[in-house]
Structures are given as C-alpha cells and as structure tokens.
Amino acid sequence: MERLLSLSEFDLDYTEHKDSFKDLAKLAAKVTGTEVSLVNLIDSYTQWSISGHGLEIEQMPREDSVCQYTIIDGEYFEVEDLRNDERFRDKFYVTDGPKLRYYYGIPLKVGDDHNIGALCVLDKNVKELTPEKVELLKIIANEILSRLKDLKVITKLKSKLAEASEIQKKVAHDIRGPLSGIIGLAQLISEQGESNQIEEVLEFTNLIHKSGRSILELADEILSADKNDHKPISNGAEFNLLVFKDKIERLFIPQARNKNILLTVTTSSESERIPFARNKLLQITGNLISNAIKFTPAGGYVNADLSLEPNDHAHILQIQVKDSGVGIDEKAIEKILKGNAASTTGTTGEAGFGFGLALVKHLIETLKGSINIYSKPGEGTVFEVRLPQKMQ
User: Fold this and answer.
1) pTM greater than the 0.90 cutoff
2) Which residues form the Histidine kinase domain (predicted)?
3) Pairing relationship of beta strands 314-323 and 370-375 according to DSSP bridges
C-alpha cells in the first residue's frame, strides 16, 4: 500500500512521458547490447510502459509482467532464459513475437523502501551482463527517477503559476469596481464645486470610504493567502471532463478490448468544458475501471460516467463506474468501505493484489470526497465517487 501511495504522489498520466525517457531507454539498450529496453511503472493492476526502445508496448496486466518480481526486493532481477522458467514460458512475449528469452531488471526505488517500477532490458538471445554494464544500468535508473521527480516539481510549479494567474485576474476584477467608484465620486464632487451640499458631500465621502474599505479587505485577503502558501495545492495541470474522458479511453480501452469487454466513457454536456484540477483523478478512476474489468466476464460492459455539479462554494465532480460483472455481497462492500477488503481473483483467473480499492478509498478520503457502492451478487456493481473541486 505504501508503495502504491508513493507512485500516486507523482500523479502521472502514463501516456504523456514517452519522449521524456526515450533517450534513457535507448541508452540502456545500447549499454547492455540488448534489443529491447523498457521503463515500466507498476500500479495495483497494470504495468505501464511509459517509454521504451525496440518494442512498442504501452501496458500489460501486472500478473503477466516480469518486472513485478523486480520490484519485490533486492537490487536486481535476472532471468537467463524465459522459456525455461515456468512463471514466464507461456507469456505472449515469449511464445509469440518478439519471442524474448533474456531479462534483466533494476528497480526504480523512491526513498529507501518503495519500488514504483523497473528499468529492464530484454533480448531474443541469452545474454550475460558484466558488472560494468550493470553499474551503468543503475546510473540510468537513477537518472530516470531524477526526471520523474523533476516532472513532479514542474507540475507543481505549473499549478502555482496557474493559481497566481487566477489571483491576478481576481485582483484586477475586484479592484476595478471600487476604484472606478472612488474616481467617479471624486470627479462628481470636483465638477459640482461650490454648489455641493454638505449632506451630499458627506454621503459621497461615506461611499468613497466603503469603496476604500473593500480594497483594503481585498489586500488583507491576498496577504493572508500569501501567509498560508505552505498549504498543499492541487497537483497537476487543470483540465475538463472532455480531456478526462480522452485520457481514460486511451489508457483503459486496450485493457477492456483484451478481455472482450465494451468500455464506454460519457460526460455531462452542460459541464464538460468547466476546468478543474486533475489531482489523483486518473489514479482513482483508473483503479475503479481496472477493478471493474477484472470482475466482468468477457462480452460484458463497463461504463464510466463523468459529471460536474455546480455548487455555491465548490463544484462536485461525480465519477460513476458501472459494470455487468459478478457483483459484490453486502459483507464485501462493508469491508471495502472500511478499507480492509481481501484480494480475490478475476473472472478469468486474473491475480489480485489486494490494494486497488484500498488505494481508491484512501485517495478519496485525502481529497475530502466520498464513495458509495451499490451491488448484488450476479447483478453487476456501481461505484459512485463524489469529490469537491475548487471553483476557478
């Protein structure tokens, strides 16, 4: 669970960073003399290949990957011949093209304990890496982690710049009104000259005083916000429901097709262009969709419905994931909502790792949202998530 939380802190869109690591992936292959190298990140259900060299692949189920063993422990994981290892001999990348045989992986370690993924090299022929080549791989893996951390910092800076831009617009808008009032009243007093009645002057002065007070209050508000700048802000660039829908489709339709499941994503037309922060949304929705695919038989469906409900103080983002799967009984629902659900296998024997829904619940709670589950055994499941979104 702690490992997944470390990965979620990067708040990555796994399809965005192919070019950011392409040179390092190529360098890893050249250093080791292998045909293939991949930069893989592993979440609850999926191995995401965020960049690579020599093999076009974006994702695979976690239980099919070799890198899932690399992240367990140790400094490396090596398989001299995948065909002779019962864990991998029947995997598609061994039996079909590219018919890989050799694997060597270095974990991508955050801090002292959490391996969020792996840098791996693979080849169609058996290889032997010298200590010098292994040391160079470790250096490349460290550089990949440095770039991931840099991307995280850049994302936060972009968010701060966007926030500063919004404050600037607000200040310009809020000051313009009171200042226009002050200037207009002062001009009126000046134009009337000696014909001003004392009562009118006092009334104008009172209005000027009120306008001045509103500017002063705005200044206090800005200074207070500056003092509270240490508070966490939304991580990630702002986007809207249309962008959110596109990212979900690109990331998870391949998973659904692989199991012959129809995945559809719908949005509310009234609010689909309203901007909001993407903070952890792909992690939350992605885990719910992957879980729904896992427990839906072939030929079934999964639908993700996205909507944004206007509110006086904050918009409410509603995410509903509905499937035609095996369903959940009341006891299992209660365990999920308490955060202690046990791992179970999927409808075609997909391995369970026990953390996907626990991670979803944790992330929703940190964002001060709520989750409800509606289901009966054999009748599918509906997950409903509500998350407050700061108004822009």
Assistant:
1) no
2) 170-391
3) unpaired
